[in-house]
Amino acid sequence: MAHKKGQGSSRNGRDSNAQRRGIKKFGGERVIAGNIIARQLGNKWRAGKGVGQGKDFTLFALIEGSVMFDQEGRRINVVAPVEATAVAS
């Protein structure tokens, strides 16, 4: 009896899908509450003002505004837009 399987194909075929990590919204881009800003493994980027962090380290917007990076690109904030002054009519 053979001790090796023929062709070796039964040992192949295991490959995982890509995780699709990285920055999803870049500096200056507009976001609404709930938009995912970054998917990461560990704290590569830190959550700043207006940004929440999920249990899998996903960073997401808590408020509507625009994305802003600081601390040499390591902290992500969402800055609320400046409210336009209402014109009295």
UniProtKB/TrEMBL annotation:
<protein>
    <recommendedName>
        <fullName>Large ribosomal subunit protein bL27</fullName>
    </recommendedName>
</protein>
<keyword id="KW-0687">Ribonucleoprotein</keyword>
<keyword id="KW-0689">Ribosomal protein</keyword>
<dbReference type="GO" id="GO:0006412">
    <property type="term" value="P:translation"/>
</dbReference>
<feature type="region of interest" description="Disordered">
    <location>
        <begin position="1"/>
        <end position="24"/>
    </location>
</feature>
<dbReference type="GO" id="GO:0022625">
    <property type="term" value="C:cytosolic large ribosomal subunit"/>
</dbReference>
<dbReference type="GO" id="GO:0003735">
    <property type="term" value="F:structural constituent of ribosome"/>
</dbReference>
<dbReference type="InterPro" id="IPR001684">
    <property type="entry name" value="Ribosomal_bL27"/>
</dbReference>
<dbReference type="Pfam" id="PF01016">
    <property type="entry name" value="Ribosomal_L27"/>
</dbReference>
<comment type="similarity">
    <text>Belongs to the bacterial ribosomal protein bL27 family.</text>
</comment>
